[in-house]
Batch of 2 targets.
Target 1
Amino acid sequence: MSLSEKDVFARLKENAFHVLGLRPSCTRMEVEREGQKLLAMLELGLSEAAHYDTPVGRMPRTAELVRASMATLRDPTTRLQHALWAQLPPGTPAAQVPAKEEPASWPEAPVRLGWRRPG
Amino acid sequence: MIPFGAIIGVIVALRLLSRNQEGQSQQASPYATNSSYLFLTIVLVIPSTLFTLFGLLAGVWFFAPFTLLGIALCFPWTVARHVFIPLGWPRWASRFSYLAMMSWGSDARGGQALAAAWALLRARNPSAEARAYVEAKLEAADSPLRGAGIVAHGLMAASRGDLETARVLCRSVSLLDRRVAPRLARKLALEWCLADAAAHGRWREVLVISQKGSGSYSLAAFFRASARRLLAEPHAGRVVLISWWVLALRWWATWPLLKRAWRTPPRRASLLDLEAGETQAADRLARALELHAALARVPAGHEALALSAAAVAWDEALDSSKVHDLAAERAQGVGPLAGAEALDVLGDEVAEELAAWALAREVKLAQLEPGSDMVENVAYRVRNELLERIESAAQDMTYRLAERRPLPSEEEWRHFLALQHQCTLATSLGGLEVRRLAFDAVNVPLCNLGAWLFNERQEKAIANGMFRWLLEESRDVGTEEDCRRYQNNVGCGA
Amino acid sequence: MATPLYVGIDLGTTNSTAAAFDGEKLTLIRNAQGANLTPSVVRIDARGAVTVGDRARRLIDSDPQNTRSEFKRLMGTSQALEFAAAKLSKKPEELAAEVLKSLRKDVEQQLGVAPTCAVISVPALFELPQSAATSEAARLAGFSRVELIQEPVASALAAGWSANDEGSWLVYDLGGGTFDVSLLETRDGLLRVVGHDGDNFLGGRDFDQAIVDEVLAELLRTQGVDIRRADPRHATALRKLKRAVEEAKIELSRTDELPLLVPGAFETDNGPVDVDVVLTRARVEAACAPLVQRSINVCLRLLAAHGLEPSQLGKVVLVGGPTAMPFLRSQVQAALGAPFATDLDPMTLVAQGAALYAASSGLDGRPAASSAQPAPSGRKVWLQYPAMSSDLSPHVVGRLVEGDSGPKPALVRLVRADGGWSSPDSPLSAEGAFVLSVELVPRKPNTFRLEGMGADGKPVPLAPASFTIVQGLTLSDPPLSRSIGVALANNAVRVYFERGAPLPARRTFRQRTVEAVAKGSTGNVLRIPIVQGELEWAHLCRLVGALEIRGDQLKASLPADAEVELTLELDRGGRLSARALVPALGQVFEQVAQLQVPDATPESLQEGLTAARERLSMLRSSAFRRGAPGVVASLSQADQALAEIERDVEAARGGDADAGQKARRGLLDLDAQLEQAEAGLRWPELEETVREELAVASSWVAQFGSPAEQTLLDEAMKACERARAGRQQVELQRHLRSVRKLGNAAFYRHPSAWEWQFDSASSRVSEASDVSKAEELVQRGRRALEQQRREELRHVVEQLWRLLPEDAQERRLAHDSGVR
């Protein structure tokens, strides 16, 4: 029982490089510098730091995530793993295309059929 | 003068009488409809109403209120359904529903609870008192729990905002023996499920529900026709749609759906669209990642194809010497084997992600492209996950049975439904092999649960529902003994 | 600007130390006696007066009932310590709080300020409850904010602060009660803990114990007196002997031979016995050698785990009192080869590192009132910058505080106070914010002025007008020492925080319930056990807490397979909180039950020991049978561990609670070892079973099965083959069950099947839970057999089976988890 919905795309969504907005070729010092800057910006609530892009869309950035990402990239072994997943840059055109929608829902169905009070 | 006081007196007397009889006579058929009110209606209410009607026609205006009351007493369910339930008055809805005992067959108490729960669902700001009243009605419907009672519990869950439970319960009525699941209850459950699925845009579910459910054939057929058009299924014509709309007789209620389904269905997104923008990926790793990320945008119906494509791309990427070189380069300073190890870990991570996705999107494993290592790996993980869930739930049920820890009847039924749902899901994804293993895992605990409910707790309706499902399973994947046992058990009645 | 005060405390098993750092230099705090080390000993006399440190330690022999030491090892357990004269019982964290209070007072005396914040060091392998207890002790001692740092990280930070070379280091930290070894790496001014290992219960104390054992053995040899640690009569005398040995040990690093005389030490049935032996350096070394070797093995294991050879080490840092022993130094040197960092004081290094860490996490200990500046004039700016930075050009981010009046600057710039650097003028963003990178002078506090300019070019005063960044080695977040996760119903662990994850941390996962909880029932509980450890099976990890959802708290019943959103949160002090949201009910549950190291009663330990012994012997015979030399070798290690645990259990029976805890952990580790060994044996065993059962089932199904069953069996056999080829153990077991079932069904169609089953069940009557009832059933069965009543025979057999023992149940292992 190790699979759950939360895991789907977790490795793309929570990739340490994407979180810090860096590429796999960056140096260790860049990781620290960028992380420290993002933490400071998040603390001050600057909108610029509030989101980051991934190949599966835009995600909200939190201080915990930034700290965890820094720790990930400090350790060469985990960094290597994240570097492989980060091989695809977040800005690929495919990432911006929204998912093809299912046919629209009919939200007033329960009201119309008498299962809910209107309004 | 119309003796309405007397009529009500007779009702009460009959009610008391029927209660006494229940206590005394065990021989009465368990599926019999309580027809005391019908008798009363024919003998007393209809003649009196006719009498006042004639009086009214003769110009005696004094009779007008009595005529109205008489008509109301002749059609109690109509009054409950169209007056008290929309008003959100659980008490009155429940009382009139009691008079409509004919419509509820063998589950009159369940019917009362259902009407009360429905009225509560419609109430604007239900008071704590109203809630307590409905809960008391539900409790009364619990021993034994039958079809209408189950739907009532479902509606109550919906009024709490717990739609998931409501769905599970309302859909489960189709598992019961029809003798203990009155047609009206089945019809209402079906309508609620259809409305709920449509409201959440789950049109594929609408197709399934409308096929499985019973009690309201033409409305279900209309929903099915609409869903098929909305999903742009082949041969979903307008003639069928409009015919079922007319036959379903709910013209005003379903008009917006008709309008929507009538319009030309949108062209379906094909997977080719997705691939067009992605061919520029230079190396295999990026290509695999791109197809992997593209899964986030795969439209329903194309899952198996997209998953196979991603899996094959991963096979190629993980075998490619260029990717190995890249990993080795990135692994400098970690150790000589780190690059290859990292790729092994990557393979596991990918398989885990793909399996989690396949599970979330309910991809049928048999449709995946055979021959790919990654596909095999993913399929194994999905199968294993499905079976582990079932095994652990079955284990839990075994413990509960061993400790003889009873749950309220409705929850016993839900406990079974949770397991049954997991088995159904496992079968639909994993095919016959998984079905066999799942059945092996749940066979004993479910049979024991059913026997306990049937023999010791007199919950025959739901126990019978369980045996019916087990029989169906054992016919396909059980031994002869299993089949025979469940045939016997189902034959014991509900 | 007044100098900041960063306080670090090394709360040790035997001694505690405090150090302070002001941004430039480190100061060691002296206690009232003028010493750097304060013994971690607390005495409470009959009037309830508390004495801490040296004065308390002097009374530890003469008044052991009212004087307590070494309580650090009991942190996080429910074990209370009694003070007989004052009739008080204190929890270990309360005693630790007394020591912290005394250190806090020393800081106040020396520096004039009672600190409100501090960093306290804890052993690297401390578990969550132990960390939480340490935080609690600090709170009791009057610290309003406290952070914990692992001891090896602290010593490395202190060692790195004064050194310039980069590379890999090993910190060998042998304390009074614990042994930690850490592998560290410095690169680009950044310190990274590569990994650590250790023995939670190997310390200087064990060296003393080894010498005491040696002395006792001598007594047995020369005088024929058998003194056992398990005998509570000797507890005081043993303590006295230990003290004498401790002193002799220190003395022996200077001389070769020393007489040890404790007259009338032990009361025996034959009268008092004197201890009069001559200790030689060689004998002491021989007694301690296995312990030193054990510590070296841990070091080598750690190096091997990270693919390093001892020769690749740049330096070894020794920490802790026992590392002063020349014999130990020479052995470690010989084994590891790397030079020692000689200029560092092994006794105070940890406290110094903790103080440095307080600076890098900006934990200024000055109370709010004294650190508050007179309200500065100017437009208020909210600034974010690292108090300490290893980066030579960190970022400074600022934002105008909204709602503050006064002229608004259009441009800002930063100027270093020494005039050596200034930033370009930077315009403010639409949000009133700026992000600037500054340049630091290495290894110095750098003060910067913040200057604002209006649109007209005139200066605009800003508050604060200046701030300081210290450049030096830093460590940004304390890493978690062991992974934390939730035990699932199938005995797996869902890891929420990996080892090394930075604190604070917070994570949410969606789980599903496996059992229903009825509304209103008090006995019906859904447990979500939280475990710590690196092993994949929950029962092998340590249970550190449990979230419980009780029936009587529920608004509506919780069905099986309901979704639960579980969030675990860890703060920097290692305090764990958990909350479970049940979306279907819209209800949140937050009570974390039982955040404690479990008690180790001698009875439960004995039980565990017996079970482990049995398991070991079974494993050994099965390993020999299968000829698995690897497994046999690993079992000999387990043998040694078992012997050691046996000793500790015996000591626990003599009233040594600490040895009990040690034994408890030892048993858990042993379990893990045996589990691994079993896993190595399981696969061949399973393969053999599958082969056998397939043969049996196919013959029965061929004789008595229906065509449909034959098809099912063929399919199952194919699946078995596939699972076998892929070495998928669980899958194979699953198909095996299926095969077995089909085979069984066919088997029971044989006319004599129940007769055979009856024979086999009646031969096991002695194992039944109710033997007399079983015998009665056997009689009934015999009659039924004679009269050829098959149905009744079957009924009897089924009833008999119910009385016979069943196999162990997996979920009971997994801390009774109710989620998956």
Note: The helical segments of chain A are 10-13, 16-20, 28-43, 63-74, 76-85, 93-96, 109-112.
Target 2
Amino acid sequence: MNHEKTLGRNVFWGHRITGLLILGYLYLHLVLLSAILSPLGSQHFNAVASVVERPPFIAADMVLFAIILFHAVNGIRLILADFGLMIRENRFAIWTAMTIVAVMVFIASLVMFPDLLR
Amino acid sequence: MATESKQENPKQEAARPVILVSWSWMLQRFTGILLLVFLGGHLWVEHFMNTTTRVVSLRLTHWIYTFLDISLLIIVVYHGLNGLRSIVRERMIRSHFIWIDIVLWGIGIFTIIWGLDILWAFWYHHPFFVV
């Protein structure tokens, strides 16, 4: 029972922290896209785009994708819980969600891996 | 006569499912579901297309991309700031709630205008406001 509470609490904070990180990324995303608003316009934007396609940024993208996936899949679980689904099987639901996240992150890593080697 | 029934049988009243807690609560779920589609589409498109000014501009000539990008911008800003609102409200006294709403609405409108300005710049290669 205690373990279940700890698991639930961790996922609760995980959802909040990933949400705040994604909100922070939204503003970073807008700042980078704002290169198009500079006097050099498209030239400046293309330069920024070529920098963020380098391997360290692709690796960071993978982490970002994992964060978004965690928030999204856990969000689906929360909405199901709002409709009264999977509440008794809460522990099972959380582990299922985490497994789905892990599998999807693994698949995404395989898809994104060639970009890391460019 | 809801109050009477509550007094008569409080347990039964408590067991009744609450469908609409608040608009912000419901819209948070609704925009969350929409984001699965819009953000999923956004990430898919961005991964399989090059990110150059020319490609983004050409893409935006099709109404479906313009629709997707503007919708995603509005939905993501609402969902993000509404989530932040619910966290901030837990740590604040009730009399300050109105100020949180005013500040977050201001930030939200500013962010949407900023995003639209970026999209506008991609459409025509020149922005309203130069940073």
Note: Helices of chain B lie at 2-8, 10-15, 23-48, 53-60, 63-90, 97-124.
